[in-house]
Amino acid sequence: xxxKEHLYxxxxxxxxxxxxxxxxxxxxxxxxxxxxxxxLVTGFTSRYNVTKLVYWEEFDNVYDTIAREKQIKRWSRMKxxxxxxxxxxxxxxxxxxxxxKPRFRTGE
Length: 108
What we know:
The chain has one domain (8-106): GIY-YIG endonuclease. The chain has helices at residues 30-37, 44-47, 62-74, 77-87, 95-99, 102-106, and strands at residues 8-14, 21-26, 52-59. It contains 6 helices and 3 strands; from the N terminus they run ββααβαααα. By secondary structure, the chain is an alpha+beta fold. It has a 3-stranded antiparallel sheet with strand order 2-1-3, sandwiched between helices. The two termini are 16 Å apart. Mean pLDDT is 83; it is low at 104-108.
């Protein structure tokens, strides 16, 4: 029997006016984003209404995920903006796209 694949994500959230960015990582996939949206995560994201998912990457190795999160956190705001705009030029909330991934719909 094949062991179930575990995925990790690095993500960037922003607020309504895109004035604040938050970079995080999770092994809980969609559920961590829901926590931010419902303001269940106390601190920075709830204080500044940072609930809009504008960028995410998927990894199958936790160490690669942590390294990527740290790399992005060290970047300037300009470089983070460029990363977001390369994949999400309209700064749309990608939460729905993440929710529509087959593994979420089937509950795998």
